[in-house]
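Internal ticket - ligand job 422, zinc ion:
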Amino acid sequence: MSEVQSDSRAKLIFDPEELDYDFGPEHPLQPQRIAALLDLLETCELWDSSNANSSLPLRTATSEELSLVHTSDYISAVQTLGAVGKVERLDSEHLQLAMKYGFAEGDTPVLPRMHEVSARIAGGSLAALHAVMGISDNGTIVPSDERPLHVFHPAGGLHHAWAERASGFCIYNDISVAIASVLRASEAKMLYIDFDAHHGDGVQRSFYDEPRVMTVSIHETGRYLFPGTGDVLEMGNGLGRGYSINVPLEPFTEDDSYIEAIDLLLSPLVLSFAPDLIVTQHGCDTHAWDPLTHLSLTMRGIREQIKLAHQLAHSYCQGRWVALGGGGYDLYRVVPRAWSMVWAEMSEQTLPGELPDEWVNRWRPVWSKVEEQEGIFLRTFLPSLAGGLLPVQIVIRWRWYVTLFYLLRYDRHFPRLDVIRL
Ligand SMILES: [Zn+2]
Ligand SMILES: [Zn+2]
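stdout (structure tokens):
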């Protein structure tokens, strides 16, 4: 491989153990999407895993660091359940623990070693924020010219986890842990921008009364999508009033409306808040092909979002920018392409016009397998729609019925920017 010509002040964080954040083959969140992303970056010679210059090592977040956000009861439940490893192996006492802490509802099942793996991911985001802010593990301050300017941690971005429960595929909230750790170690003000299609509820909750952290979430309205929150009236509490910003978008919001919304909103917010660091979560389940959500972005809208984050960091924050992954359930057609754009943007490299054949040939079989499964679903679902529905099918296919219900009642009214005018 030729020498990677990336900006040496941009670093990517990845640790193979992060791929163990794996809820099993039937779960929508698949760690293989990160493997496909890194393979795409290497095949395009945009990043080289063997080149220490473009990577940053991570360390496991300590229980003490996790407890800046999570309750100690929750952390010990994650440890206990992770040691058992599988829901089927839980006895009645463990099952009660799983129910109490959000692991028994199906979305976020118990996974083996989940404390260790999730603490590793939290440690990655923590390392990213510390590096950009110049906070070293021994408490000394790293001189500005020795710090990376931008860091990308694609396995991070688990924005739904609450202080005392797992939620929406998220066990430890790596974003909140990392931000809370910088809050403790410095006087910095941080702006968190959540571009995921789902509301960034966990991070908002963590800092709802904290005026040093502004959270901005741009997401599909909670009327139709998990977690149901993210209304414009959720504005923060006490001293934090005005520092939680929510922009709920209508289903089917497309690129032009989206770009207009973020362009109008973000610059004035950054200017008025004057943060020392910008942290962005680039969940790409906003893409039209995503199977779990109903927004209609293409790569154009996602590229503008990434470029804007980069530009804001340079205009208002002396370039200090940490980008994280997040949701994204079209595993091979969307996630690797969207997040390659994040890395290309921050390392100032040009993406090739087309996906390399070598990469396509490697990942096409995996992608075809997913398509095949969807084909089986369509072949079994559509006849059932015509020929009468069994109650069990209604239960299993509930997401389809929610979407269908929405499509039938949708009245072609697109109040796409009303929220900006409020
Ligand atoms: Zn999401
Ligand atoms: Zn830059």
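Auto-summary: Residues 1-6, 384-389, 407-422 have pLDDT under 50 and may be disordered. The chain has 14 helices and seven strands.
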